[in-house]
Amino acid sequence: MAVATSLKLLQPERNPTDDLRNLFHTAQIRELTFDHWHCFIDGDATKNQTNLVSRMIVCALHDRTCKLPLNSPIARLPKRMIHVRALNKRYNELQTDGFTALAGISFDAMPGQIYGLLGPNGAGKTTALRILSTVLKPTSGTAVVNGYDVIDDPEQVRRNIGFVSTNTAIYDRMTAWEMVQYFGQLYGIELAELHRRMEVLFERFQMNNIRDVLGSKMSTGMKQKVSIVRALIHDPPVLIFDEATSGLDILAAREVLNTVEQVREQGKCVIFSSHIMTEVQRLCDRIAIMNRGTILAEGTIEKLTGIYKEDDLEELFFQLIAKSEATQRDLVAQQV
Amino acid sequence: MKWPNVKLIFNRELRDQLRDRRTLFTVVVMPIVLYPLMGMAMLQVAQFMREYPAKIWIIGNDNLPQSPSLVADGQVSEDFVSESESVLLELSLSLPEDDELKKLVSQFRETPNSPAASALVDQLIQAEMKARGLDVAVVVPSKFSIAEDQTDEGEATVVARANSPPKIYIFQNSASDQSRIGAQRIKSVISRWQRSVIQQRLSDNGISPEMVSGIQVVDADVADKLGKQTAIWSKLFPFIIMVWSLTGAFYPAIDLCAGEKERGTFETLLSSPAARSEIAFGKLLTVMSFSVTTALLNLMSMAFTGLFVASRMGGLPSGMGLGMPPLASIGWLLLALVPISALFSAIALAAAAFARSSKEGQYYLVPLMMISMPLMMIPMMPSIKLDFGTSLIPVTGLMLFLRGLIEGQYAECIRFGGPVCVITFACCWFSVRWVVHQFNSESVLFRPSERFGVATWFRHVLRERHELPSFANAMLCALVILVAKFFIGFAVSTPQDFFDFAKTTVIILAATIAVPGIIMALLLTRSPGKSLKLNMCSPAAACAAVLIAIMLNPLFTWFTSLVMIVYPPSGDLFQLQETVANILGTAPNIFAILAVFALAPAIFEELAFRGFILSGMQSLRNKWQAILMTSVLFGIAHGVLQQSVITSVVGVVMAIIAVQTKSIFPCMLFHLTHNSMTVLLSSAKAHVVETTSLDLFLTATSGGMYQYSVVPGLIMSAVGIVLLVWLLRLNLPEPPLVTECIRNAYHRFFTRKTASA
After folding, report:
1. CB-CB neighbors (< 8 A) of B272 in chain A
2. A63-95: per-residue pLDDT in tens?
3. Higher model confidence: residue A248 or residue B712?
4. Residue of B8, B268, B452 lying closest to A165 (CB–CB)
5. How crowded is the C-beta side of B278, counted as CA atoms within 13 Å?
6. Across the interface, do A182 and B451 touch by the CB < 8 Å criterion?
7. Other CB atoms closer than 10 Å to residue B756's CB: what's the count?
8. Which of A196, B159, B329, B725, CA to CA, is 20 to 30 A from A224?
9. Are B104 and B117 in contact (CB under 8 A)?
10. Distances B594 to B599, B602, B669, B679 between C-alpha atoms, Å
11. Distances (CA, A) of B42 to B37, B300, B316, B426, B684
């Protein structure tokens, strides 16, 4: 809490959190995005950057004009595309006392990064991604996509993401072309521009031969391709692939993985959930290993293998899950 | 909501449905092909349809008079049947073959009145009829003839005979259609013959037959052809339209919601920028278009096929006069079709949204059909007409309204146009809101399949309850009250005296109104005291409530008279009032009556309505919405139309008091004062009024009752309204619960006692 601390030192009589909240809305520091603020609050920024922000806050408090220098270190801060903090999701079920699908997970993903969510079935991966795509609402916690909060601004969040789900989710009675056009129009893209983009994407994914094929007549691989094109049509900065390769044959799966890599090269942020280790090892820049709604370990693969002294990701995964299950069992035993 | 998105979703869904063979079949192909096919089948079957002659066995033909003769040459005499009719009557005059039967029949002919003999004959004749394949048996037990009467016994006997006329027995088997038809045929022949017999007897006795014919009634139909046509179409059209608009909404709704969930495309759509309300509206419009199209196509196809088949089959009976429907009726239908299909589509869509799969969707929609059907059937009954009561029933009201419009009774209809439109649009609005709610609800969209058990459900309810009741809890309470009142109404017997009446009334009030409210507050909320608004009330609030009740009494009394003028009470209501008045006559004193009519409702009704239900409605966070909805429910719970209207309005004032004072007790005081004053006014006696100088306020009406005088009444009403406005402007803090106050007082008392000790 670097900024909060410096504020406290400068103005001990004032409550720093209230000031921070107010400052988010002051004109002088409009240049600072929401992500930058979180960066400071979490204490990730360098000393110089902190000092600069502190100075700006002091200016703002005294209502002095304070402009951010163009070449300031803040401008060089990496912008967080996805920012998740203490995300909780509890399903209200009839049978049990309610089922906690997510128990306060936090992670960040940057542009040009593939962020892997790794975990067994029921770990909470899909729930987390459904919250990011605003299909579900979190019970508590925050999730911010490209500066837009999933609760406060769901429509903007949906505009900033492309979602490719586990099941290929293709309309049976629509052709590939119609489907992509429909979603493009829903994103508000003008028809001429939409057709231009569609031509490019259909060419790139070699889909011109299935343009007029109905969804019911497509193979699973074709369907997933259409799904990907549909997710890319509005050129979103964030792409979410939720177990996108499950059920695909090896050729189709490889094609999906290649696409993910291409998307990263374009500087987009990709969230890639999977339970296939090889895919994750090949693609992801950073991973989070999840089980029972919590993140067991988070970081780059090298960092994780370094910490846990295990070269093989699969072994590491097994170890972590086994440990977590054992802890869970102990907890249950204690309760009993 | 962005309408371009709605349009986009609508277009897609429409195209999707049009590419679906099943939907196309139900909506387009079936109406176009089905009815002509059915018509063709009917024409084919009609070729095989003919009337079979009824086999009639006449026993004792020789007992019949010779002139006028009923039977001639083994056939029915030509004087009484036309040629076509005579073909349909095949007579058998042979005697029974069985000896025993022969004996019995002759015995029966001698003593036809002995019950044992007639039962036995009945049985034997039946057996014989079965054995010989006969449909009807006609038994003429004793000999009678007109000529003999006159020659042998003279005029005196004719008179005696007339007192006990000769009998003819017709044995038929009512379980067989053929036998019943045969019996009818022979009866009509016999009645014609009978008329001729009477005429002959009269003329033989020198009396002109016209003398006994009394009055001749001549039927004349003043309805023109168009009127007759509209009378039929006005009943038929609304029904067909309603049935098909519901059916047309059915399948697309399932496919658009449950089907999409099943295929996994729903999640993709939800993660697109389209808002949930846009998706809901897009889908709703699609379902609506199919509903409208199905209804129209079915109607057209049915009408054309019907007319064609009718013309081919030699036309309908002349009385029906079915022709092309009047043009205006089609216009009214088209106008009414929009709200009808909007209502059915929204309900179908909301129900389908709840289903996880298409199969499950069908389970939910069948009950919907079962509920709607009676509502559509009620208006087909001849005794039902559009009045205020029926205009308030959803679907039924609209159907009756439509029927009236088609029949051209505009003046009649206009009176109830308001309620019908309000109810129809309110239903549409609620169902559309429900659809949007369903689309916003995670638990509906991503519902896991769970095993249901009453115990688990009950535990779940207890676990998930909130501090105060929810809107759904309030509606459930109102529903339970209505259903309980309905059933208990059948269970109780008519009271004999006042104590019996008092006992039943108090028990009904407590059991059907207070108990559901209290039990629900205990089970469904964490703070039952707060849910029932058992907060302390300040003396000022209590005084204000009593004062408002007194001051507004003239206004409510006048309003009651107005309601009675607008909706005159029916005969049943008068009868009920008379019964109650008789029972009240046996009351020991006025205080007993006040206890039953004022004290009991004040306590029990307030606990449920201004307590639990109002608290639930207040969860909507809209003061006026909560007040109005509670008052309407309070009105509906009173059952009788006139009383419902009056109590709804009184309920508004009581709900305002409850919301503003945040306590139930001022409401109870208001209710007690209001009801007491109404009872006292209705039982005011002339000598009491004169001796207590109440005649300053009251004037006697023609019926020996008292009514408020205009000037004092107006002044009182003005004061009452001012007080109410003053109350509305107050912003009081929530007073502590009664239980807390008692507990605190007890503790204070207890500690002081120990301290002093």
Report:
1. 158, 183, 186-187
2. 444 454 445 554 445 567 888 888 888 887 655
3. B712
4. B268
5. 19
6. no
7. 6
8. A196
9. yes
10. 7, 11, 13, 7
11. 9, 18, 14, 43, 71
Evaluate whether B182 touches B172 at the Cβ level (below 8 Å): yes
Domain boundaries, chain A: 2-76, 107-327
> What is the chain A residue with the closest CA to B14?
A173
Please tell me if residue B95 touches chain A, with a CB cutoff of 8 Å. Answer: no
Instruction: Supply the Cα-derived Rg of chain A in whole angstroms.
Output: 22
Query: Token digits for B356?
Result: 């996880």
B239, B244, B250, B256 alpha-carbon torsion, rounded to 10°: -130
**Do B339 and B428 form a contact (C-beta atoms < 8 A)?**
yes
Q: What is the model's pLDDT at position B722?
A: 94
Q: What is the DSSP annotation of B340-385? A: HHHHHHHHHHHHHHH-SSHHHHHHHHHHHHHHHHHHHHGGGSTT--
Q: Which residue is closest to A159 within chain B, CA to CA? A: B273
Q: What's the distance, CA A160 to chain centroid?
A: 11
Report the first-to-last Cα separation within chain A, whole angstroms: 39
Given an 8 Å threshold on Cβ–Cβ distance, is A97 in contact with B463? yes
Span A107-327 CATH architecture: 3-Layer(aba) Sandwich (3.40)
Find chain B residues with C-beta within 8 A of A186's C-beta.
Answer: 5, 8-9, 272-274
Token representation of residue A130: 């459904």
Query: What's the CA gap between B287 and B281, in Å, rounded?
Result: 10
- B451 neighbourhood in chain A, CB within 8 Å: 95
B267/A171 touch (CB, cutoff 8 Å), yes or no: no
Query: For residues B478 and B516, what is the distance between their CA atoms, to the nearest angstrom?
Result: 9
Q: What pLDDT is recorded for position B491?
A: 78
Q: Is the pLDDT at B154 greater than 70, yes or no? A: no
Nearest Cβ partner of A186 from B274, B457, B460?
B274
Matching residue, tokens 């029990």: B604
Confidence class for position B606, pLDDT limits 50, 70, 90: very high
Q: What is the pLDDT of residue B204?
A: 83
CB contact burial B319-336 (16+ within 10 A = b; e otherwise): eebbeebbeebbebbeeb
Looking at per-residue confidence, does B150 or B501 come out higher? B501
Nearest CA in chain B to A240: B271
B residues 419..458 contacting A (CB < 8 A): 442-443, 446, 448, 450-452, 456-457
Residue in chain B lying closest to A166 (CA): B264
Q: Which of B16, B273, B446 comes nearest A159 by C-beta?
A: B273
Question: Chain A contact for B265, CB < 8 A?
Answer: yes
pLDDT digit string, tens, across residues B319-368: 444 566 667 777 888 888 888 888 889 888 888 888 878 888 888 877 88
Helix (H) or strand (E) holding A148: strand A148-149
Rounded to a whole number, what is the distance in Å from the CA of B445 to chain A's nearest CA? Answer: 10
What gap in Å lies between CA A233 and CA A189, rounded to an integer? 9
Q: How far is CA B727 from the centre of its chain?
A: 41
d(CA B573, CA B583): 15
